[in-house]
Design a protein that fits this description.
With 273 residues, this protein is α+β, with helices and mostly antiparallel strands. The protein folds into 4 domains: 107 residues, Arc Repressor Mutant, subunit A (Orthogonal Bundle), CATH 1.10.10.10; 43 residues, Winged helix-like DNA-binding domain superfamily/Winged helix DNA-binding domain (Arc Repressor Mutant, subunit A), CATH 1.10.10; 49 residues, Arc Repressor Mutant, subunit A (Orthogonal Bundle), CATH 1.10.10; 56 residues, Arc Repressor Mutant, subunit A. It is built from 14 helices and 4 strands. The N terminus is likely disordered.
Amino acid sequence: MNNEEIEGVITVTKIAKGKGPFYNIQLSEGEGLRVSEDILVRYRLLKGQEISQQIIDEIRQSGGYDYGLQMAMNYLSYQLRTEKEIRTYLKDKEIEREDRDKIVAKLKELTLIDDLIYAESYVRTQVRISDKGPQTITQQLRQKGVKADEIEQALSLYPKDSQVEIALRTAEKALKKIHGKSQRETVQKVRQTLMQKGFSSEVITGAMESIEFEKDEDEEYAILVQQGDKLWRRHARLNASKRNQKIKQSLYQKGYSFDDIQRYLDEKEESDD
């Protein structure tokens, strides 16, 4: 063996178990490699073994794929993921684009990635445990990279009667939290809550029809008086005309009738005289 061949020899000086399913390989030239057990067996790597630069280059080239695949499978072991989530995860782990493509293809081949299955599972879970309407679920699935046709297919698991049932339950829960409001404002707030949850106008109407918004005229007028008195104090420095106009506008926006508002103002002015 000549001097050039001896100088080109690289020796494995140390093999140690690394984190997870990986091994750390230390080479005589000072370089370190992180490899999977599969690569360790494939290249029959042992301490003291002499390997060429060509083999090292091959190991390094396949190392990113093996490492990324193992990381992705570990990431999937906790719960289902979409293709976009896997790609983002691998990118964050600094896996090269070419390796990311290969890994995703392999995971699809193993049926470990399937966005339709993910979407169907997601919809079933949301219907069971949440108060979200289909519009919110659609938006969340889009953010996870699920295609429109797959979302539409998955939402078939959330039929209209289930939407109305969940919307009704959500509306009743919201209603219990609303106090000191006019009937009209109460209805508006409940409807707004259902819209924010992602239910359609048709479903909201169906749910609202099943709720009895009882109106106690004496109680509603008492609430009007409380709110009117606050406004009266707030606008006390204005002249009577401007003050009354401000109060009328505010109370009407809160859902009170013109007759009750005028009644309040008349009573208030009489009591102040």
